[in-house]
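Long-time lurker. I teach an intro course on protein structure, and each term I like to show students one example going from raw sequence to a predicted 3D structure in token notation. This year I'd like something fresh instead of my usual example. Would anyone be willing to generate the tokens for the chain below so I can use it in lecture? Attribution to the forum is fine with me.
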Amino acid sequence: MKRKLIKQMCHEWRDNIWLILSLMIVFTVVWGGLWLIYAQVYGYFIPRGYDCTDVYSLNVRIIEEGSPYYDEEGKDIETKRDDFRTLINRLKAHPTVESVMYHWGALPYNYNYMGTNVTVVDDTIPQYYGNNREASPEIVDVIKLKSLTGATSAQLKEMLQRGEILISNNSVFEEKGYDPISLKGRKVILGSDSSKEYRIGDVIQNVRRNDYEPAWAGTIITPLDSWWGQVAVRVKPGMGKKFEQAFNDNKDLRIQRNCFLTELERMSDVREANQRSIENEIRQLVVLVIFVLITIFLGLLGTFWFRIQQRVGEIAIRKICGATSRNILNRVMTEGLLLLLIAAIISSAIMWIFVIPGLFEKWGTTGMEVRTFLLQLGALILVALGIVASLLYPALRAMRIEPALAVKEE
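-- Reply from a regular --
Happy to contribute to a lecture. Here you go:
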């Protein structure tokens, strides 16, 4: 039966070529839609090296001279630093607070682009690139940094207190054949400033700027050596409302002479606002892909309906010759799936030669070969299901026609 089917397909090569070309386009479009969705959401499933649950963000402001609230005693720079230190210590002492840090753009969801290169001293190892997050050692406890080498939170804090830096895993660096863990303990310089050397204390899980970022860059945690900056507070579980009320009601937690803390924000709210546009884009893309799939299914239904209608007489003759409905249905389905397989092989060859290498240059190749194959397999399955659904009804309908009526015009 299979030999006869292939022989028949070869005899009908003109019609089949056009159908194969159509299926190549369909397969490529479905694969492209799946790839677009994957490119948007796959970062969400990568482990995040932070936890912003129960974390609040605060900004530091200074009352300027001329304000009715200006305090002459707090005008000196050192006094302002002392006042800032006092506010930090008051927050730490509050019963609802677990940990407090000060930082410059170290929290996720702020899209800071303070990227810099890490160059190993006296070595030819390629430069490591990452987003630089300057913060006090308490960042380890506030956003729950996670060591990749088994170091405890206390050990990570000690490293930052000693002036060492922390770096994260980095897919681009790993693509060059280097493991960031191999840099642990090495002396490095940041950017082009060779006047100051740092020691890499440990390697942590990457702190991405949002949940969906593909993490092409690493993370560099640099100890902030001055008492100034933004503030982040981790409260004890379930104590968020009490902390908010205490902060709003207790002036001592907010103001010390000319230094005051303001703009209290839950990081959960910052996350939602930051990622709302991304998630809306993902929803729109999913709806678009579903619409395209429905359109493709209707197109396949029309194509195969017309194809089956042309073969009503052939189906009747096969039934007269003893073929069962199951034999005919299997033959029809096998032909459609064989045409799809031929189209998928040709399309896959073209994409792997001309398209996918460019994607690998942008996204890297770590695990991408397997993911690309799985996406193509998913596209193949979706189109195959569409073909089966498109063939099933018209084939069953054609088989219900009485053979005598079907071959009346033959």
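Some talking points for your students: The chain has a mean pLDDT of 85. The radius of gyration is 32 Å.
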